Amino acid sequence: MGAAEPSLEELLEQKKRVRNPLVPVGALMTAGVLTAGLISFRQGNSHLGQILMRARVVVQGATVALMVGTAYYYGGNPWKSS
Fold first, then answer.
1. Predicted confidence (pLDDT) per residue in 19-72, tens digit
2. Is 34 helix (H, G, I), strand (E, B) or coil?
3. What are the residues whose beta carbons fall under 8 Å from the beta carbon of 41, sequence distance 6 or more?
4. Which residue has the higher pLDDT, 59 or 5?
5. Residue 17's CB: how many other CB atoms inside 10 A?
6. Would the CA dihedral through 48, 52, 55, 61 be positive or negative?
7. Is the C-alpha dihedral spanning 5, 8, 12, 17 positive or negative?
8. Quick one: residue 75, left, alpha or beta (phi over 0 = left, psi -120 to 50 = alpha)?
9. Is the pTM of this model over 0.70?
10. Cα dihedral across residues 28, 29, 30, 36: positive or negative
11. CA neighbours within 13 Å on the CB side: how many for 63?
């Protein structure tokens, strides 16, 4: 209640987030594979749809691994609390 809120300059000096430009690419690839798989199921090609759904899981896992790896590389440990 009595604590003063930090100013904008203090917030900017604390820690700047590093963004990996490949993460949005992974997210778009995941969405594209998901869409292709759903279209394949809709058209009746269940075998191709199953393959694409498995590919989506692989791409999604790679994207998450990229995000965790980027955080760990730049000093943030996702498994420890502050």
1. 778 788 888 888 999 899 889 888 898 899 889 899 999 999 998 898 888 877
2. helix
3. 49
4. 59
5. 7
6. negative
7. positive
8. left
9. no
10. positive
11. 17
